[in-house]
Amino acid sequence: MTTTEKTNRISVIGLGQMGKKLAQLYHEAGYEVTVWNRSKSRMTDLEHVNNATTAYEAISAGELSVICVIDNNAVLEIIEGLDDKNIIAGKTILNLTTGNPTEASELEAIISRNGGSYINGALQVAPDQMGREDTTVLLSGNRTAYGQNKFFLDVLGGNLKYLGEKAAAASAMDLATLTWLYGSYIGLIYGVKLSQQYGLQLEDFSTIVGEITPGFTEFFKHEIDVINRGDFTISQSPLPISVAATRRIAESFEGLDVIHEFPKALAGILEEAEQKGLHKQELAAIIKVIGRQMA
Q1: Helix (H) or strand (E) holding 68
Q2: Which of 33, 105, 162, 229 would give a disulfide with 49, using CB separation of 3.0 to 4.6 Å?
Q3: CB atoms within 10 A of CB 202
Q4: In the 8-state DSSP scheme, what is residue 271?
Q5: Would you list the domain boundaries of the chain?
Q6: Which pLDDT value is given to residue 79?
Q7: Do residues 250 and 289 lie in contact, with contact meaning Cβ atoms separated by under 8 Å?
């Protein structure tokens, strides 16, 4: 990659495990890296970087400033605490701090109001997985700034997902994928509990889960497409099959010493869908119940 003297400078604000990894990746990619952290002790063990004494100095040093701190309240404190917010004018701020869509929109408004460009990001991997070809990073915000800084962004990973002009989009997608992740994970742990109850080998459970997951991933993608098209004609899985299945799941846990709300919630959602007259539709029709829209 070829960079000019003007565009090879980047700043990293926030030196937790992820921030340190980002600084390392940019140094290894040949960039001049300036770092700043509120706690100075975290700045002492980084080599081949420039240590800024203030956030203002760090933002001044880079064409692009990457912020990755504990939360967006800390980001707001950093921005509001700048000696002169005019330093933001003409700069691009890439915020990789975990936050919610509302916070992203607020930061976008502040940075735009001060003449800067804002890109919001959500990292889908741990620090050690950054910079790989399969590293997924969700990004949204100023389209022009995204294009102009693409060579900076490519250092983060090989699977960048630009989701559009609204900065809130990356945070919203992050929460959407996490909802799926934690819902699946809780189901996995309940599956472990049921396996233990009936003396099944957890190694067998693990193997079978791994073997069936690719097929279910394709099924999930099909169901999302069903919702996207708005055509709930039965195509893969009639809703009544899952009504019966989730009822069996709830019943199987009734005598076990577990929190019962999760299996009951699964069965309850499907039963409500059936009661609402969706029994002749594809399983994805439960979106109408969850969204409280029965059109």
Answers
A1: none
A2: 33
A3: 11
A4: H
A5: 9-166, 201-290
A6: 96
A7: no
Find residue 95's DSSP bridge partners: 67, 120
Region 8-22: what's the mean pLDDT?
95
Could you tell me the maximum CA-CA distance found in the chain, to the nearest angstrom? 69
Do 112 and 118 touch, CB atoms closer than 8 A?
yes
> Which CATH number fits the domain 201-290, given the four candidates 3.30.360.10, 1.10.150.120, 1.10.1040.10, 2.160.10.10?
1.10.1040.10
Cα–Cα separations (whole angstroms), residue 277 to 224, 245, 271, 289 = 21, 18, 10, 11
Distance between CA 158 and CA 284 in Å, rounded? Answer: 32
pLDDT band at 294 (very low <50, low <70, confident <90, very high): low
**CA 8, CA 152: separation in Å to the nearest integer?**
9
Cα three-residue angle 51-56-29, rounded to 5 degrees: 45
Strand 136-141, strand 159-162: pairing = parallel
Say what the pLDDT of residue 36 is.
Answer: 96
Looking at the domain 9-166, which fold is it? Rossmann fold (3.40.50)
What is the dihedral sign for C-alpha 220, 225, 227, 230? negative
Residue with tokens 């193997």: 207
Task: Give residue-wise pLDDT tens across range 167-192.
Answer: 999 999 999 999 999 999 999 999 99
Q: Which residues contact 22 (CB under 8 A, 6 or more apart)?
A: 12, 66, 68, 96, 130, 156
pLDDT, one tens digit per residue, over 227-278 is 999 999 999 999 999 999 999 999 999 989 999 999 999 999 999 999 999 9
Q: Which amino acid is at 294?
A: M
